[in-house]
Amino acid sequence: MPPTISVLITYYNERELLTECLRSLLEQGPAPEEIIIYDDASYYPASNYVQIDVPVRIIRGATTIRPACGRNLLLREARFDYVHFHDTDDLFLSGWLPQVTNKIRTTAADLVLTEVSTFSEGRLVSERVLGLDRIRATDDLVEFALQGAILTSSGVILRKAALTIGGFRETLHQAEDFDFYVRLAASGVTAAVLTEPIIRKENRADSYSSREQGVVWASVVDAVRQLADELPARYRSNLADKAAYAGSQLFKLGARHTASEAFQLARHLGPPTYARQRRSYRLLASALGPEAAEWISLGYRRLLPEPLRRALVQRGL
């Protein structure tokens, strides 16, 4: 039998974006077996933005809850073999459903990852933000998930596998998708990838994750702290680098105390390699510590005009 898929959409006041999201899915041809929307006690109810003939089920919460809680509710309500979690402001590109279904049929994978294109105000930011074309059959999926961030809408997951790991970690305010995919990979799922972008993500300035970057990166640190107690010791270096990078982002946002905690965690797990930073930063952080590297980098950004900084980056400095 062909694989069956439940599309699970979390909604919170995105209004017309929900209409566009559903249209992008349903205009492609046959609909998935099930579409469920969780309306997180929105001021603008999801039902107002769903056409009457669209085959969806809406579950409306009485009070606003964390994204992880909403996704877990949808996971429990889903009735079909595979689940796809989707943010309302992401669009399905042409061929999503047949390509995913065919990949599951031909590989029997527990997890299918699809590439995502990101846009900001309608302009392309990254054609392939996950970099799935870099994954080889011998690569460690846990390392890949720790080094980057697999986006919520990228995955189509065997429902039983998602339930086995307990779904999303509800104690996390944000970064629950990062944590979920790391734990899913560590559970030993088989995975397949589609390297062409078939999901479009719009980076909206008014989205919660854009407005509350400090909460997002602090949640990454919380996730790393919990994952460190659960993953095999061989991933401690990857976890250290993730904590150090989160600390760098928090420092730039002015959250110096939380950044310091992140750097302390990185040193405890590490030492970190600062792999995602420029060579000059790596040298400073390794010699003087990440806090010193951040203060020096801050002075550098204030003293040198942006065109000169770009020129130095192009030279690998």
Q: What are the salient characteristics of this protein?
A:
317 residues, alpha/beta, nine-stranded mixed β-sheet, 13 helices, 9 strands, 45% helix
Report on the structure:
The protein is 45% helix and 18% strand. It has helices at 16-26, 67-77, 96-107, 141-147, 159-164, 176-186, 208-211, 213-228, 236-252, 256-269, 279-288, 290-303, 306-314, and strands spanning 5-11, 34-39, 57-60, 82-87, 90-92, 111-120, 123-126, 155-158, 191-202. Strand 6 (111-120) and strand 7 (123-126) form a beta hairpin. The relative contact order is 0.10.
How far the N terminus sits from the C terminus, by CA atoms, comes to 55 Å
What proportion of the residues form beta strands (DSSP E)?
15-25%
Secondary-structure element pattern, one letter each: EHEEHEEHEEHEHHEHHHHHHH
What gyration radius follows from the Cα positions, in whole Å?
A: 20 Å
What form results from the Cα inertia axes? Answer: globular
Helix content: 40-55%
Q: Would you count the extended β strands for me?
A: 9
The count of helical stretches stands at: 13
Q: State the low-pLDDT regions, or none.
A: none
Mean pLDDT score, rounded? 91
Going by helix content, strand content and strand pairing, the class is: alpha/beta
Note the main sheet.
9 strands, mixed
